[in-house]
Amino acid sequence: MCQPCILGQPPPSRRVPQPNFPPRLGLVSGDSMQRLAARFASALAVRLVRHWPGLFKALNHSGPKRVERDQAWAIFARAFPYLGFTYAIIIRTLIQAMSNERVIHVVDLGSGDPKLWIPVLQGFVNGPLGPPHVKITCVNSKKEVLEKLGTKLVKEAESLDVPFQYNPVNVSLRELTLDMLQLRSGEALAFTFILNLHVLLSEDDRVDAQFGAHKNNAVKDCKKMGEFLAMVRSVSPKVTFLVEQESDHNLNRLVDRFVEGLHYYSAIFDSIDSTFEKLLSEERFVLEEMFGKEIENIVACEGLEREDRHERYKRWSVRFSQAGFKPVSLWYNCMDDAKRLVEACGVDGYKMINEKASLMICWHDRPVYAVSAWTC
Question: Which of 129, 187, 249, 366 could be bridged to 105 by S-S, CB 3.0 to 4.6 A?
Fold first, then answer.
């Protein structure tokens, strides 16, 4: 046996040179399309290197320190109106849906954001029947998120004199069972999924990377998703909210995901440029690192490892309808709240549209995020 094989390396004739990852400068300089191209080139390089686990591990550890997603998410929520748009719609719709209820239980499946739930508590106080008893269950795999949310909600409820109960559930969506939610008879139930339900679409599916094959536009059957939505439907929530990226990244063929991703993230990166006025900024880089990780997952990963399987509203509407849900018409004055919030950000280019039973925020003509509400 040759010496390289003894050392666990491929022989010289089969040895693959270390891929030339895009230089770090390409990720932080240039216009939005140049930076986006560098992210996709990096993701393709990672896809190739993953065939050699040892090399992949070495390169992965030698790169820059991974940026904390929480830091990036805080910047995203503060500097852009995308999340605020969806929150404004959820808050107004939820308060109106629960206006005549005396015992309310809201299940937050993954968000854990006080900026959503504190205004909800404040809105419940002004109901026609006075403050109801409110219980908020938050499901999150990060214990620190649960603790931070609980502290802020308890303090706010005390200041508002609202009867309040907090139920933290420290598990992922895949691990969640109904008994963990501590549901009680007589509660008016509401569920929220904010930018996380798509992870349940991850499965060990067959990959069709043939460029010549036809794109399959059918909604992919997913046993785990069907079972999860059936579980939620079984407890008859009064309203269920869904917020997801308005893009199709749950496609078998790499070429389809790649093209769809280019279109979607070009809008994201262009809006980042407009917000930061095309100046180099540490905050901009932190944001683009977060989205770069999403791009890498979409392009470089397959099977269960590929969790960023975003789907457009029209596909989600099929899944929810098959599970027994019906769309709820979002109140028109929700749009007024959302418009004021978007205008306050001071950046031109954002648009809001009504697509069937969904409201969407767009960057110019490209829908970016969609919010919808469902009932049983």
Answer: 187
Q: What mean pLDDT is predicted for residues 352-371?
A: 94
| Stronger pLDDT, 151 or 208, i.e. the higher one | 151
Q: What is the CATH number of the domain that holds 200?
A: 3.40.50.150
Q: Is residue 8 part of a domain?
A: no
Do residues 365 and 270 make contact, with C-beta atoms less than 8 angstroms apart?
A: no
**What is the domain count for the chain?**
1
Give CA–CA dist 195/197, Å, rounded.
6
pLDDT at 29: 72
| Opening angle at CA 365, ends 359 and 369, nearest 5 | 40
> Where do the H-state alpha helices sit in 7-81?
24-28, 32-49, 53-62, 69-79
Note the Cα 318 to chain centre separation in Å. 19
In a domain, 1, yes or no: no
pLDDT of residue 326: 96
Tracing tokens 């549209």 back to the chain, one arrives at 353
Query: 10 Å Cβ neighbour count for 274?
Result: 16
Confidence (pLDDT) at 314: 96
Beta bridge partners of 358: 355, 372
Could you give the angle at the alpha carbon of 278 between the alpha carbons of 273 and 281, nearest 5°? 95
User: 345 - beta bridge partners?
Assistant: none
Question: Is residue 201 domain-resident?
Answer: yes
Give the residue numbers spanning the domain of 299: 17-375
C-alpha dist (Å) from residue 230 to 106, 224, 235: 18, 10, 9
